[in-house]
Design brief:
Blueprint: E1 5-10, H1 18-31, E2 36-41, H2 43-46, H3 53-70, E3 78-81, H4 87-96, H5 101-105, H6 108-116, H7 123-137, E4 143-145, H8 151-167, E5 176-178, H9 213-221, H10 239-252, H11 256-262, H12 268-294, H13 297-326
Parallel strand pairs: 1-2, 2-3, 4-5
Helix pairs in contact: 3-12, 4-7, 4-13, 7-8, 9-12, 10-12
The structure holds adenosine-5'-triphosphate and L-tryptophanamide.
Residues 10-11, 13-14, 17, 19-20, 23-24, 146-147, 149-150, 183-186, 195-199 line the site of adenosine-5'-triphosphate.
Length: 331
């Protein structure tokens, strides 16, 4: 049987958090043998909020180095920068002509980001899900591994695929989201009602994948819990502790019930330290590898070049097909 296609991306909009890692990148690694995987740096998406050009460039290399350090293998998967394959912008234009402003205006992320960037509510911010749909549909993607916050955007991608297929003829595969059972939404360490986000103003709210052991320990020590002293998973009444248990389970490989037993009769201090140590133990070697990769820009550029050529070949076939179906004359 032919392998199914996987597509996913992260924006180089800041230093990824452990939420980005367990919600997406970590799961991409595991899919590389079973699927045809295509992983992108969503650099065009970052332009929807203000960026400092030199920082964007540096963060793009950092994110690529992180992908590779986490185990994304460019011999197995296509790894490329979205802006290097112009068909993403072209398909966005076509999809825009079958998208209604109303369906974009009701997106939770658009509403949140409009609130947080009230001085820069631009067309790109509104159109963000259409560019994401173009990313996915260009490659005949079957499966899209993402965290739960992207589910709404995946629904738009599915709707647009179906709409185009009905208006013209079957062209796009209707993609399925793949959302992890544990870790789809790691919460802020300072406010367990909010998603952990790399752009949070409070640096104690998130753990960046580049944080050193001292920072990791300090941030977990300060994590908001509750006034009990019982390490028990209860997402209704003990959100902070449940979030820490989820993180501990994902980083130590122990199940949540086993973790509860391990800390029976112990206080939050011991528990928080163990969570911090489990996270630091996973992140330290990844960072070491990432820094090694970053020192070799030539290698990183060669990975992007190869990825661009591979992605462009596929994207070009699809955009030709789309242009033909909608009645544009062939060059
Ligand atoms: P920002 O904070 O800048 O809006 P972000 O942290 O949400 O960004 P993205 O680049 O938008 O990061 O997301 C990359 C991937 O990480 C997506 O698949 C998203 O679903 C996932 N993700 C983001 N935050 C979390 C989280 N807290 N828990 C689990 N997965 C997450
Ligand atoms: N919007 C996504 C990043 C992204 C993406 C994609 C994810 C851009 N294009 C295509 C999956 C498929 C985010 O995680 N914020």
């Amino acid at each position: 049987m032919e392998k199914k296609t996987v597509f996913s991306a992260v924006q180089p909009s800041g230093v990824p958090t452990i939420g980005n890692y367990v919600g997406s990148i970590k799961n991409w690694v595991a899919m590389q043998d079973e699927y045809n995987c295509i992983y992108s740096l969503a650099d065009l998406h970052t332009l929807t909020v203000k960026q400092v050009p030199a920082e964007l460039r540096q963060r793009s290399y950092e994110l690529l180095a992180l992908y590779l350090a986490c185990g994304i293998d460019p011999e197995k998967s296509i790894v490329f920068a979205q802006s290097h394959v112009h068909q993403h912008a072209e398909l966005t234009w076509v999809l825009n002509t079958i998208t209604y402003p109303g369906e974009l205006q009701r997106m939770t992320q658009f509403k949140d980001k409009s609130r947080n960037h009230a001085d820069n509510i631009n067309m790109g911010l509104l159109d963000y899900p259409v560019l994401m749909a173009a990313d996915i549909l260009l490659y005949g993607t079957d499966v899209v591994p993402v965290g739960i916050d992207q589910k709404q955007h995946l629904e738009i991608a599915r709707d647009l695929a179906v709409r185009f297929n009905n208006r013209y003829s079957p062209t796009f595969v209707v993609p399925e989201p793949l959302i992890p059972k544990v870790g789809a939404k790691i919460m802020s360490l300072q406010d367990p009602d909010k998603k952990m986000s790399k752009s949070d103003e409070n640096v104690n709210a998130f753990i960046s994948v580049t944080d050193g052991t001292d920072d990791i320990v300090r941030k977990f020590k300060r994590a908001v819990t509750d006034s009990e002293a019982e390490v028990r998973f209860d997402e209704e009444n003990k959100k902070g502790v449940s979030n820490l248990l989820t993180i501990y389970s994902l980083f130590s490989g122990k199940s949540i019930p086993d973790a509860e037993k391990e800390f029976e009769g112990k206080g939050y201090g011991d528990f928080k330290l163990a969570v911090a140590e489990s996270v630091a133990a996973v992140l330290a070697p990844i960072n070491q590898e990432k820094n090694k990769m970053l020192a070799d820009k030539g290698y990183l550029q060669s990975v992007l070049k190869k990825g661009m050529e591979q992605a462009e070949y596929l994207a070009n076939k699809m955009i030709r097909k789309v242009y033909k179906k909608i009645g544009l004359i062939e060059p």
